[in-house]
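Feature request, filed as a ticket because there's no other form

It would be nice if the structure record came with a short human-readable summary line next to the tokens. Right now we just get the raw output. Example of a typical job, pasted below so the devs can see what we mean:
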Amino acid sequence: MRVYVRIICALSLLAGCSKNDTSPVVEPAPVRIAPTITRVTGVNFDEGDRIGLRIDKSDGRYCENAPLSYDGSCFASDALVWYDGAEEPSTLTGYYPYAPSGMPERFSTAADQRSAEAYASSDLLLARAEGVTPSSAPVSLVFDHLLCKIAVRLTNRSEETVSCVWLEGLRADAVVDLGNGTARADLSSPEVVVYPCPGDAGCYEAIVVPQSVSLRLVVQTSDGATHVRSFRDAELCSGSRYTIDATLTNVTLTAQLEGAIRDWSDGGALVPADEEKPADPEQTLLYEGVTYRTATLPSGSVWMAENLRYAPSGKSVSSDPAANAGVWFPSTLSLTASEQADYVAEQGLLYDLETAAGTAAAQSVAPQSEGVRGICPEGWHIPTKADFMELMEHGAALPDAFFAFAGIRDAAGKYTGQKLNDGFARSYFLGSTADEESETAYLSLCFTRNGIRSIIGMEAATGLPLRCVKDGA
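Raw output as currently delivered:
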């Protein structure tokens, strides 16, 4: 619509004018806008980009949703010139991207932002300036981001290539109030899968609507497997950048906070759902790039509060329980292996004693295996019978979630486990003390959902979850 053209006519009806008046006609200056903030595609707007502009004077609205195009230095339009009254101030409100239907009350980001065009068009910007008077010079407007950016930096250390990355749990529709400079997710809109724009060196970026979200990062690899990392409820705030520094291995997908990106304020960390932010560093254990929660018994002993999921050097984690691999992926309720990253994080891996203790193959369990470090972190060891007895005595002080219920790989080479509808009914922790009643068995801790805990003998070839205990606590 070209409704903003000032038509300049010579009117003979003006008082004091005569047919012989030859005074030059002064053309009104065009409205020009010089943007002073970058957007997501680079260091400036691209030539041909358009913004919408509103100008309000004290006596009313001078223009509404005027389209101005970027020429490489300024936004302008032949159809929009300044009003008369060089000293009369006005308020300018500009937004990007331009919408022919009018300044938006609603806005939707693209679900698939894998193309640069879809990514850039998802960025909603707003600028506002008061007390502006007509001038031939460009008006400087600072454009602010009303939405959020999520940046994923993915390091792939697995044997497969990454075929796709996406984010789940997000809403793409926003309710917008340009007068107040706010945008917020429409809670009545459905959640969508957001595919971020890929960049260099494993970087992916997406523009998303401000909202409260339970975010899930999903990485799909060339073998068709999907690896999921879930995050606790987070508040994504307008204009903020949230970065997920993720690492994919053959076993799991981990995620950590990274630094800021220029032109966006730092929105803080997105905390993985299975990781606590402790009051002090002693409540967590960082081992081979994975952070484990820990728990302290009333007696002072410190235990890992999650099952170990470390792949020992020289070992390949197997999804075939019949394989003599020494370390296996956890079992699902259907008694098949699961390589899903979130499931591995919840269940841990399964180890036989030889692999866990790092001892040479033997027909019998040697007494010197008791309390060895094995594949535990430095300063930690595989639980002994005394550790299990202490845990049984003080376990009531621990939260129920401490005792994770997982299936096992039995000595015959099969996944097994007593099952309920919502999970396994009992589980075990691998130990290092020899069973006096058998030369080929060791003691493990058995626990059930009804709170029964006992120490029993298990064949050394059995694959069990492992919890490490801190030395000398």
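Something like this underneath would help us a lot:
The chain has a mean pLDDT of 84.
The helical segments are 116-121, 341-347, 353-357, 385-394.
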